Amino acid sequence: MRTWIKHEDPNNKYGATFTLGNKDIELPPGAVISVTRGELFNIPRLILNGTLNHFIMKAMTKNEDLLYAELSGQMQGGIGQTLTIWKDGKRMNKFRISGSHNFARKFFSWVFYSGKVQSYFFTWGHEGRIPSNEEITAYIKKYGRHFDGGKLVKKANPPINKNNLTQ
């Protein structure tokens, strides 16, 4: 069974990243990247989001359809981001609508959809190398769905060439 690895942020004692799998892989045809990002979480939301993520992380270790996962958080800015990379979209959706993830999605959606929280969601097909964290953050903010306190501000607007993050 795969295990999560914690990477402390040397520049931020209140931030860390957890990874599952090897980021230095070439993604096969049909692979899908999915990112969920929340900003401006208050402390109770950060704690609840972290607690829910622990249950979801356990389920991810058992899922062979998951190629790579990365969860990161920072207290400053109230930021939480989940990056998952799947063999294909059908397998990702199967995980998304079952088990601990489905429970969290149904009963704790208010964490992402209320208050001052800025939420971003985007899923896209991708081949080749896994993009850097900076590329992914820029990409999701440019092309992903954006909610401000639960109100849809911008629908997802995928680029024509989804495999080019530097457009």
Q: What does this protein structure show overall?
A:
The chain has 167 residues and is α+β, with helices and mostly antiparallel strands. It is globular. The chain contains four helices and ten strands, in the order ββββαββααββαββ. Helix 1 runs antiparallel to helix 3 (99-107). The longest helix is centred in the N-terminal third of the chain and has 19 residues, at 43-61. An eight-stranded antiparallel sheet has the order 1-2-5-6-4-7-9-10, sandwiched between helices. The protein has a two-stranded antiparallel ribbon with strand order 3-8. The protein has helices at 43-61, 89-96, 99-107, 133-143; strands at residues 5-8, 15-20, 26-27, 32-39, 66-74, 79-86, 118-125, 128-129, 145-148, 151-154.
Name the helicity range.
25-40%
Briefly note the structural class of the backbone: alpha+beta
* Helix/strand order, N-terminal first: EEEEHEEHHEEHEE
Shape descriptor reads globular
Care to give the gist of this entry?
The protein is of the alpha+beta class. 28% of the residues lie in helices and 33% in strands.
Sum up the structure in keywords.
single chain, alpha+beta, 167 residues, eight-stranded antiparallel sheet
